[in-house]
Specification:
The complex is a heterodimer.
Chain A lengths: L1 H25 L4 H6 L11 H7 L2 H34 L5 H11 L4 H14 L6 H26 L2 H9 L4 H12 L1 H16 L3 H6 L8 H11 L4 H38 L1
Chain B lengths: L1 H27 L2 E2 L8 E2 L3 H8 L1 H32 L6 H13 L2 H11 L5 H8 L16 H26 L3 H9 L4 H29 L3 H7 L10 H11 L3 H27 L4 H5 L4
Classes of the chains: A mainly alpha, B mainly alpha.
Amino acid sequence: MVPISYLVALVIIAITLVPLLFVVLGGFRTSAQINSSPTGLPHPWVWSNYGTILTTASFWQNVENSAVIAILATALAVGLGSMAAFALARYEFRGREGWYILFAIGLLFPANVASLPIYLLLKQINLLDNLLGVALPEAAFSLPFTIIILRPFMRAIPAELQDAAVVDGATRLKFFLRILIPLSRPALMTVSILAFVTSWNAYLLPLLVFTSENHFTLPLGVANFQSTYSQDTASIFAFTALSMLPALAVFVLAQRRIVGGLSGLAGSIKG
Amino acid sequence: MELVVLLAPAAVLFVVFVLLPICIAAYYGLFNWSGYGTLSDFTGLHNYRLVLDDPVFRESLLHNVIIAGLSLLVQLPISIALALLLNRRMRGGSFLRLAVFTPYVLSEATTAVLWLLLLQPGGFVDEVLKDAGLGSWVHLWLADPSIVLYSLFVVITWKYIGFGIILLLAGLQGIPPELREAAAIDGASAWQTTRRITLPLLGPTIRIWIFLSMIGSLQLFDIVWIMTIGGPANASSTMVTYMIENGFRSLEFGYGSAVAVILFIISFVFALLYQRFALRRDTRGAMTGAVG
C-alpha cells in the first residue's frame, strides 16, 4: 500500500505545483518562445519581463493599495471584533446571546451577493472609488468569524485570573488590554491571517468600487493587465507570477497557523 | 458604560455594512433606477418577476446547481479518497500538505489568469496532452459552449481540492487509531473499517466541507468573470455574474437589486436550513455559544 501513497502524493504535487512553476518560468521567456513551444524551459533566460513590471509604478501601486486595504480591514475586524468578543464573553447583560446570534448569522450572509447592494450604499454615502469603501465592508464581513472564534477563547480563560486582576486594582478594561489580549495571541493570529488573506484576495467588491486604475488592488491589477496586454503573453506570466508572491510568502510564514487553524476547526466541530 | 464602548463599534460596522445593504437592495428592487437622481419609477414587484422569468437567469441558476452537484459527486469522493490515502506518516508529509494547500491561498483572480494562460488554444495544457499521446482530447476549453462550464469546474477543483484534503485530514487525525486496530483484530477488512468506522466518524467534517462547498458554488464569480465573463453566450454564466452583467454593467440598479435580493434569499435560506438540520448537532458548542 505504501508505494501507492507515495505515487499518489507525487501526482498530486505535480498537478498542484507544475502550473505555478510554469507561470513563473514563463515570465523568463519571450512571448514568441511561449507561443511556439508552450512547454519549453527558458533558454536563454529573459529578465526584461520581470524587470519591466518590477519597475512599473502601477504594479507597486496595486500592491500598496492591496496592502493598505488589507491592513485596515484586518485591524478593524480584529480590533473591534476582539472588543465585541470580550463584551460577549465576560459581561452579563440582557440580549447578550441575541447579539452573538446576530453576529453568527452574518457568517451565513453571502458576501459576493452583497457586493452590489454595498456598492449602492457606498454610492449614497459618497465612498466610491475610495479605499475605505472596500476596507470597511471587508472588515464588517470579517467580524462574524472573528467574534465566533474569539469568544469561546476568551470565555475559556479562567475567571480567577480576572478576579485576581480586579483585586490588584485593575479595571475590566485594563484586564482586557494587559492580560487577555496577550493570552489570546494564537487565536488573534489566526483571525488576523484569515481576515488579511480574505481582504487581499478580494476581487468583486474592488471591481465595483474602483474606477480609477491607481486605486486598483492587485487582483484587479492582474485581471486588468491580462485583458489590456493580452498579446504580450510573457509579461502576463511575469505579472501573474509576481502577484502570487505575497500570498505564497504569507502562506509559507503562517502555514502552521492556517493549517493548524483548520485542524482546530475540524477538531472543535467533532465536539 | 464600558460595555457600550466595547460592543458598539463592531455592532455599528456590522449593521451598516452587512445587514443594511440587503435591506436597501430589497427597497431599490421595487424601482426602475439607473443610479442617477432620485428613485421615482416605482414598479413594485415587477423586477422580481422579470428576474425569475428570465431564461438566462434560470440558466445561470442551473449552472450554479451543476457546479454544486459536481462538487458533491466528483470533488468530495476524490478528496476523501486522497485524504484516506495520505493519512499516514510519510516522508515529506508536511511538504505535501503545503503543496496541496497552495492553490487555496492564491486569489481567485490570480488563479483565473493563470489558467487562462494554461488553457489557451495550443497552450500548455494542449501541448502536454499532445505530448502524452492524448491529442484527441484537445478541445477549445473556454470557447466551446458545451464544455466551458466543465473546464471552469476543473479550474475550481484545482483551486479548492487541497483545502478539502487538508480539512478531511484534520478530521481523520481526530479518529483514534485504536478503533481501526480493534476492527482489524476483529477481522474487518480495510474497506469495511473505512465504511463502518472511519467514514461515519468523519461525518461532521464532511458536512462542514459540503456546507462550505455549496455556499461557494452559489456565489461563484471571480473565476468565471475573468475567464469567460459568463460566456460564450451565457454558457458559463452564474447567478452572480448575471447580477453584475444585468444589474451593474447595464446600469439597471433596480433590477440588479432585485437579483441580489433573490440570490440572498436562496443562499441564506440554504445556509440556515443546512445549519439547522445538518450541522446543528455538530456545532452546538461553537455556534450557540453554550459553555461546557
